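in:
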């Protein structure tokens, strides 16, 4: 796999990856019907296309030349000293092969002025939490802006970056 910037020709494959990954991760928490509703809204082609030209952001895919195995999207906020990781997903069949780490590293390198990277994660998504903690993220005391399956705010994790 190699990491590259996402393009318009990738959008259908990115959507398929997000739908598959979301169902694999969240069906047990939300229900398959709710996951379909969420992915139809959040991961529509038009929603994904808007990210391609969003200022101060990076939209990446992990590609092996035959398929897209992972996707990441992040935005710099404020003066660019903080990056918010909005998405980092790897196809279930390709997890635990270093693809998530490659995407995360490239996101961080894309924002050289950043002093920290922040994300929100569903409290019941133990696999994602373990990944982020293994990659230097620590839980913040802040409540997330989004509600998880339980109706509780998502967890906020932050990783300081070298300045």
């Amino acid at each position: 796999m190699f990491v590259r910037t996402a393009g318009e020709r990738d959008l259908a494959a990115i959507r398929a990856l997000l739908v598959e990954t979301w169902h694999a991760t969240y069906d047990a928490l939300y229900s398959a019907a709710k996951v379909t509703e969420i992915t139809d809204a959040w991961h529509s082609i038009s929603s994904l296309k808007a990210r391609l030209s969003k200022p101060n952001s990076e939209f990446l895919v992990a590609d092996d030349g035959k398929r897209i195995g992972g996707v990441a999207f992040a935005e710099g906020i404020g003066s660019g000293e903080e990056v918010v990781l909005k998405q980092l997903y790897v196809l279930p069949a390709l997890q635990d092969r270093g693809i998530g780490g490659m995407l995360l590293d490239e996101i961080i390198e894309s924002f050289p002025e950043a002093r920290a990277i922040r994300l929100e994660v569903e409290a019941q998504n133990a696999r994602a939490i373990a990944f982020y903690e293994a990659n230097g993220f620590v839980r913040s005391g802040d409540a997330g802006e989004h509600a998880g399956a339980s109706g509780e705010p998502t967890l906020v994790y932050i990783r300081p970056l070298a300045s």
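note: Residues 11-30 form the longest helix (20 residues).
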